[in-house]
Amino acid sequence: MKKNEELFYLIKSLTKSEKRYFKIETQRNEFTEYLLLFDAIAEQKSYNEAQIKELFKDKAFATQLTTIKNYLKQRILQSLRNYHSKISIQAELTDILRNIEILFHKGLYTVCNSELKRAEKKAINFQQNLLLFQIQDWKRKVHQALFPQDFNTIKTIITSQKKTLNASVEYTNLLLANTNPTHFSLSHKKTHHIQNKTLKTLHIFQKQLASKNEIKAKQTIEKLIKEWEQNPELLKEYFATYFSVCNNYLSYLVYKKMHKEAFVRILLLKQKAKEFNNTSTSAALIKETLRLYNIELEIHRDLKDLHNTQNIITEIQEFIDINRMLIPGNYWLSFRFQFAAIYFRKKDYKKALHWVNDILNHQTKKDRKDLITYTYWINILIHYELGNGFTLRYLIESLKKHIKKQKNIELYEKIILKFMSKTVEYSTKDKTLSFNNLKIELEKQTIPKHVLGYIGFNEWVAKNL
Q1: 262 phi/psi in degrees, rounded to 5
Q2: How many CB atoms lie within 10 A of CB 366?
Q3: Which of 56, 59, 58, 139 shows the shortest CA–CA distance to 96?
Q4: Residue range 20-55, pLDDT digits in tens
Q5: Are 3 and 47 in contact (CB under 8 A)?
Q6: What letter would DSSP give residue 407?
Q7: φ/ψ (deg, to 5) at 70
């Protein structure tokens, strides 16, 4: 995103109700020129500043477009703050702290204390340590203003602040430890904050997996999930964290091929996501939902029949369409590639070809080059399976040119391409013999594991023996 496109993407991210709220709020306080600029940018499919300047060339603000755009951005952000004032406990507490600061400077210490009690209770209940530290700091300031010689109470408040700060330091240490669980050791000191406990448990879980203690690892993460579910208020407020923990557990179940248990967990998680979905965690939930879909597609790749693959693909399409502005383009490319790969493995070549063509016919310069290359490969494999000899030979030449632009053609790639070009029109009996010979040749080569993760060449050969 370029600097001059920030306002465009901000406007595009607004929901209908957010736009309505902004316009009602703005019309009461501002000149209509700002709304004209807002509407003009909202109508654009991609940001075009030259078009905006041309459209408003007769308006006075056109000569200060950068300044006006910055002002409009700040007005939108202010409107969003007001609209989402109850977006989360953190937002509520931040607003209360702003009120406390204003009240303090007005000398209204009694009202300050009333607000501080309300804020402190919420911060403790929802384990908002960083904000709790600030609340306790204002509590100390107010008490010092009222009773400057009451050092015992002030000392008690500062001691509470220190405990809160220690919990925050523990949280950052746990975040750091989870960047590389195998290289960090944690103290055995118990923690009572669920966010800290989550990070600590995930650290233990990863270390148990690394040491092949998989049964213990499963028990560890199941216990954590149960603890979250026994705290409904915290679960609702920090649902994205719970979602992430569940995704870690699902990844483990898929790794262990426990597909039935994984499917049950996925259905329960999706139900909870519908129940707790709210704007306060929308971006985080989108990220975790995409991760969940990737896990679900991995299960579908391993299933022998089509199961309900089309249903999940339709669900993913709808989800991405709704949240298009918040999802990077390469996520959609990755999902379409997975759709094509799944249908190819299940020998539904018509649907596989549909997604291959969708990718290749809508390529952009921003697309991941490796995924485009793997898509070319699936395209060739499909046409080989369909026996389209003339088309296949043309596609092989196109792929060779494409690969050469990126890197040198690997020996295993040359072997496979030569094999397909030569044997595409062989009889079934001759093909089986040829595949046996191909298997022997490929066993002498090392196909990188990351490549096999995208294109199962060895699996494809084995299926044709």
Answers
A1: -65, -45
A2: 9
A3: 139
A4: 888 887 776 655 677 888 989 999 988 988 888 888
A5: no
A6: S
A7: -65, -40
